């Protein structure tokens, strides 16, 4: 009994920092510490999900027309533009890509266009709800040379050469968002393959450069309105920087009783579990505690990652000595 009491006394060394953190946290509800505010902001910023879209064309589904070169833009209508009769809205774009071959020709350059957009859950409530993928095929005299390309990216200034007759179509991003909103596969880090049929309409491309932004519009009055055709466009969607959650060491757990809608959250939560082994009484005894979402066992601050937790423990709770290891 005396030895047990002595051991409990040594364990109380861990309790004192916890009591102090509880007092500080209670006080911080009304007057948060500056460092804590910054840490919370950085965590929230790092957790903002982004979606990567990769646009490509397959030879097997597009055989009827000469469709290259094809320019792919991520654009949004300007808020102050009122379309004239026979004109499309004025679209502002920040990135344009060039496709010159089908996706089957992996050795060829310029066979896909990649863009990054906000998380699908935020599309409906953000400015991204007006985004569209614009597809443009111009006549040969208006083509941009590959010298104006960096990877699959086309310099905005070079697009002035595209003025003239063209075929164009668009894919509204909000339609993709509605298809992906409840997609469990995407949330698990997998790539989702979508297909979209785009009607390419004849028109006349009119580049507009408003202030420092690159803008363009399409006029149907200057061309013959006949000759529309359809493209079958493939779109690969994945979380930007996502890691396939099936590779997680927690994948060996059984999730058969977990609803599909909760599955991504459960896996990510388990992937953020941290086991704290508190050694005391001259390192002869040990107590264990498990936290979720990379949270500190002393003050319960969520540190966002294992590396962040290590930095937090060494800088904030330096009264103790920590040893870190990852159990794969």
UniProtKB/TrEMBL annotation:
Cite the CDD domains for this sequence: ZnB-Zn_EMF2-like (cd21749)
Instruction: List, alphabetically, the Pfam families matched.
Output: DUF7651, Zn_SUZ12
Q: Which UniProt keywords apply?
A: Transcription, Transcription regulation
Q: Which residues form the Polycomb protein SUZ12-like zinc finger domain?
A: 272-326
Q: Does the keyword rRNA-binding apply?
A: no
GO MF annotations, alphabetized: chromatin DNA binding
Q: What InterPro entries does the record point to?
A: EMF2-like_DUF7651, Znf_SUZ12
Which residues does the UniProt record annotate as the domain DUF7651?
40-243
**Could you give one GO CC term from the UniProt record?**
nucleus
Give the domain of life: Eukaryota
| Transcription in keyword set | yes
PANTHER family for the chain: POLYCOMB GROUP PROTEIN, POLYCOMB PROTEIN VEFS-BOX DOMAIN-CONTAINING PROTEIN
For this entry, the protein name equals Polycomb protein VEFS-Box domain-containing protein
Species:
Aegilops tauschii subsp. strangulata (Goatgrass)
Provide the organism lineage as a comma list: Eukaryota, Viridiplantae, Streptophyta, Embryophyta, Tracheophyta
């Amino acid at each position: 009994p005396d030895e047990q009491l002595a051991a409990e006394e040594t364990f109380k060394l861990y309790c004192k920092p916890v009591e102090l953190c509880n007092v500080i946290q209670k006080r911080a509800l009304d007057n948060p510490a500056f460092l804590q505010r910054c840490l919370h902001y950085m965590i929230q910023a790092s957790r903002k999900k982004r979606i990567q879209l990769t646009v490509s064309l397959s030879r097997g589904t597009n055989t009827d027309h000469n469709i290259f070169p094809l320019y792919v833009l991520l654009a949004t209508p300007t808020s102050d533009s009122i379309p004239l009769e026979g004109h499309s809205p004025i679209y502002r774009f920040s990135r344009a890509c060039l496709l010159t071959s089908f996706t089957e020709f992996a050795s060829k350059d310029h066979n896909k266009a990649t863009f990054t957009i906000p998380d699908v859950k935020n599309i409906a409530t953000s400015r991204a709800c007006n985004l569209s993928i614009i597809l443009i095929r111009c006549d040969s005299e208006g083509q941009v040379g590959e010298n104006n390309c960096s990877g699959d990216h086309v310099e905005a200034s070079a697009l002035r050469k595209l003025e003239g007759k063209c075929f164009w179509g668009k894919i509204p991003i909000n339609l993709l968002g509605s298809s992906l909103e409840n997609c469990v596969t995407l949330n698990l880090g997998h790539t989702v393959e979508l297909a979209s049929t785009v009607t390419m309409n004849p028109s006349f491309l009119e580049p507009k450069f408003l202030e420092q932004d690159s803008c363009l519009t399409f006029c149907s009055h200057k061309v013959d309105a006949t000759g529309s055709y359809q493209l079958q466009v493939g779109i690969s969607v994945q979380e930007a920087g996502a890691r396939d959650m099936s590779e997680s060491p927690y994948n060996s757990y059984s999730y058969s009783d977990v609803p599909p809608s909760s599955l991504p959250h459960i896996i990510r939560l388990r992937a953020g579990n941290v086991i704290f082994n508190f050694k005391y009484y001259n390192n002869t005894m040990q107590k264990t505690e498990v936290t979720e979402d990379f949270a500190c066992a002393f003050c319960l601050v969520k540190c966002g990652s294992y590396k962040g937790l290590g930095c937090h423990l060494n800088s904030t709770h330096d009264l103790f000595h920590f040893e870190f290891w990852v159990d794969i």
